[in-house]
Amino acid sequence: MPREIGLNTLAYMQKAADNKVEQKEILKEIKEMGFPFVEVRREYILSGKTEMKEIAQQAADLNLKVFYSVPAELFTAGALNAQLGSYFEEAALLNAVQLKLTLGEFQGLTSVLAEKLRELLTNFSVHLTVENDQSIGKGSPDVLMAFIAEARKASLDIGLTFDTGNFVYIDIDPFVAANAMNEAVTYIHIKNVGYAAEGIVLSGLETGLVDMRRLLSCFPDSVPASIEYPCGGGEEATETMRADRNKLRSW
Q1: Which of 58, 131, 127, 122 is nearest to 94 (CA)?
Q2: Most-buried pick from 104, 111, 122, 251 (CB within 10 A)?
């Protein structure tokens, strides 16, 4: 069975002149392009909880699953992010099946921290996943897998989001990272990057440094993935999203 390919709304970043996406306005188009799920970005939500409820309703009407991406860290100075409960509540408003954050300043999983996490995971029917960011201290395979080991010891069902491009920023071979993290990865962000005069920049699916087809083959087809790179503006964006989705499903 082909890998389930969704769309992170960052793909629409260049479609509007001000880079702001009214996410509730693009759900129908996303569904019509054949994507079974959309990853809603918290930073693109313009009208707070009202908009979240509208997104949830429209997605339900379209039979479109919702994932929720929050640009925040799970841990701050070793403690759980004080806003974590709010993020779970927002995920519930969106009727999201998944909540994604980055790890942050993890300093060990005490019994108190584990119980707080367990309470949230029990009270909200949303899967928590942690993504590798663009720093060695918070996003390297060793750091992330150490966290997963402690989460499993505490019987916490938490997965990893594997961002295919972020490892390039910290000079780690994505294939080495895939080998180290494979069995804990529950979601993939498809993002390719290349070198430019200004440094590392986002690129198209097959125009960057990473052999994306070979990298995705490192993970079981049961692990869902989403397109998470700008796909251009206007009609070009829609055409690119649809073409790249079809290509990814054929690999």
Answers
A1: 58
A2: 104
Question: Are residues 238 and 18 in contact, defined by beta-carbon separation less than 8 angstroms?
Answer: no
Mean pLDDT across the stretch 87-92? Answer: 98
Q: End-to-end distance of the chain based on CA atoms, in angstroms?
A: 11
SS3 readout for 225-250: EEECCCCCCHHHHHHHHHHHHHHHHH
Phi–psi pair at 250, nearest 5 degrees: -85, -15
User: Using an 8 Å Cβ cutoff, are 174 and 132 in contact?
Assistant: no
**How many domains are there within the chain?**
1
Q: What CATH number did the domain enclosing 137 receive?
A: 3.20.20.150
pLDDT at residue number 14: 76
Enclosing domain of residue 22: 5-250
pLDDT tens-digit map of 98-137: 999 999 999 999 999 999 999 999 999 999 999 999 999 9
- Is the predicted pLDDT of residue 20 greater than 70, yes or no? no
| CA-only gyration radius of the chain, Å | 17
Task: Residue 190: name the closest of 221, 222, 216 by CA.
Answer: 216
